[in-house]
Specification:
Blueprint lengths: L2 H12 L8 E2 H7 L6 H9 L10 E2 L16 H8 L4 E2 L2 E2 L2 H4 L3 H4 L2
Parallel strand pairs: 1-2
Antiparallel strand pairs: 3-4
Helix pairs in contact: 1-3, 2-3
């Protein structure tokens, strides 16, 4: 699979994360049958089109580890908060209840 194919598959999955939910880089990588590719998911999201809700993808413990790739100091947090997600100290509050798993939601 080429990087561009993998990136497009990442975008397709991320585009289906419902507003007010989050998932992780690793969860997306596992869903795409490439469990060792969490970083590659992050690289894909760094180059994602504007209509892909990359702000809904966080690290495995709910931290906003990708926020440096968003323009503006707190844009990632602001986008999440606009969806009703509470963020404190760069961490999603109630992460477990907001977590979206594509294996359970997509076929």
């Amino acid at each position: 699979m080429t990087n561009s194919n993998f990136y497009q598959k990442v975008y397709d999955v991320v585009s289906q994360i419902p507003e007010g939910n989050v998932t992780t880089y690793g969860t997306i990588a596992k869903y795409l049958s490439s469990p060792q590719s969490s970083r590659m998911v992050g690289w894909a999201l760094n180059k994602s089109p504007e209509d892909v809700p990359a702000h809904r993808v966080v690290n495995r413990i709910g931290m906003l580890s990708g926020k440096i790739h968003f323009s503006g100091i707190n844009l990632m947090q602001q986008l999440l908060e606009n969806e009703g997600i509470i963020v404190e100290n760069n961490q999603i509050i109630d992460f477990e209840n907001l977590f979206w798993d594509p294996k359970k939601e997509l076929n």
